[in-house]
């Protein structure tokens, strides 16, 4: 039997889905081919989408969850049942095409932070996506002595994508040695019972997180932070980080912490 011919790229900026994995009824991840010309900095986001009913594409912002050196692009997505994009996107299969505008942007990048010793990644929900990229980025381990990834979700199953990724890094042939024991992982749940319960904001305010990790509290001299969650979490974390003396940076003006919305609404 002859192999079927590859489907022609009929969409503008079309990329082909190579892998799909469903984590829960509200979360899935997928990989697509990478446009040859696409260069991005780990932590950035792009616009991806599908053709709409009226021929106009439905496009949404998505953090690239894979590192800048990866041959493919990975995304980690919510499934909003009546969401214009994700009500359809959740049904993609390997071989399908999505639209990907190759114009990466974003503030969760190393360039937006001043040099430091400890780097914090604070994520809730799909906000772990940019950090899934950055924990696989060699520069993260070249620039910092210690990297702490916190991930807070309602249910234990919602932590699984991050947990498996962190676990896999130890044996990763490309980056495993660099990661070594520099990466600390601090997952918490807010609804379902788990080993560590609570909002990361409360755990920071009480200092419990520092006791749990056996480390000194955050200071502007040593610590840098990136935050990606809901608007509410981002606002609260900004206040907490400012309370520790950190200032918000940007690509044009690097400082001690940076923030990006995991979604609008
Ligand atoms: C900078 C940026 C980066 C983003 N990166 C990602 C990403 O990596 N993965 C991802 O799944 N989404 C991401 N989003 C959100 C994404 O753009 C879409 O909102 C999401 O895919 C849902 O699209 P939709 O058309 O189905 O529903 P929309 O009409 O866009 O959203 C409907 C409602 O669903 C809720 N919602 C949307 N996205 C999320 C989410 N991620 N988590 C929880 N609730 C949500 C909100 O209440 C929103 O009002 C990002 C958004 C921004 C601004």
UniProtKB/TrEMBL annotation:
GO terms for biological process: cellular response to oxidative stress; heme catabolic process. InterPro entries: Cbr1-like_FAD-bd_dom (IPR008333), FAD-bd_FR_type (IPR017927), FNR_bac (IPR033892), FNR_nucleotide-bd (IPR039261), FNR_type-1 (IPR051930), OxRdtase_FAD/NAD-bd (IPR001433), Riboflavin_synthase-like_b-brl (IPR017938). Keywords: FAD, Flavoprotein, NADP, Nucleotide-binding, Oxidoreductase. It catalyses: 2 reduced [2Fe-2S]-[ferredoxin] + NADP(+) + H(+) = 2 oxidized [2Fe-2S]-[ferredoxin] + NADPH. Its cofactor is FAD. The keyword tRNA-binding does not apply. CDD domains: FNR1 (cd06195). Residues 4-111 form the FAD-binding FR-type domain. It holds the Pfam family NAD_binding_1. It comes from the Bacteria. GO terms for molecular function: ferredoxin-NADP+ reductase activity; nucleotide binding. The keyword Flavoprotein applies. Its EC number is 1.18.1.2. Belongs to the ferredoxin--NADP reductase type 1 family. PANTHER family: FLAVODOXIN_FERREDOXIN--NADP REDUCTASE, OXIDOREDUCTASE FAD/NAD(P)-BINDING DOMAIN PROTEIN. This is ferredoxin--NADP(+) reductase.
């Amino acid at each position: 039997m002859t192999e079927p011919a590859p489907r022609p790229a009929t969409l503008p900026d079309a990329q082909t889905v190579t892998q799909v994995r469903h984590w829960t009824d509200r979360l899935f991840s997928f990989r697509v081919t990478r446009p040859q010309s696409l260069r991005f900095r780990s932590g950035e986001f792009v616009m991806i989408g599908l053709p709409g009913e009226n021929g106009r594409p439905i496009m949404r912002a998505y953090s690239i969850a894979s590192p800048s050196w990866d041959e493919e692009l990975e995304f980690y997505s919510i499934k909003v049942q009546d969401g214009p994009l994700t009500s359809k996107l959740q049904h993609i299969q390997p071989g399908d095409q999505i639209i990907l505008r190759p114009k990466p942007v974003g503030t969760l990048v190393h360039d937006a932070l001043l040099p430091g010793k400890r780097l914090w990644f604070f994520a809730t929900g799909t906000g772990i996506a940019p950090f899934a990229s950055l924990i696989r980025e060699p520069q993260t381990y070249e620039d910092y002595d210690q990297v702490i990834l916190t991930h807070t979700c309602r249910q234990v199953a919602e932590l699984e994508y991050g947990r498996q990724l962190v676990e896999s890094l130890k044996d990763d042939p490309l980056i495993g040695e660099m990661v070594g024991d520099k990466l600390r992982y601090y997952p918490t749940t807010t609804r379902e019972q788990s080993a560590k319960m609570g909002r990361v904001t409360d755990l920071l305010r009480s200092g419990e997180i520092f006791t749990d990790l056996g480390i000194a509290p955050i200071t502007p001299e040593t610590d840098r932070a990136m935050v990606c969650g809901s608007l509410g979490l981002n606002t609260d974390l900004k206040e907490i980080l400012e309370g520790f003396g950190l200032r918000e940076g940007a690509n044009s003006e690097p400082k001690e912490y940076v923030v990006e919305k995991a979604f609008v609404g």
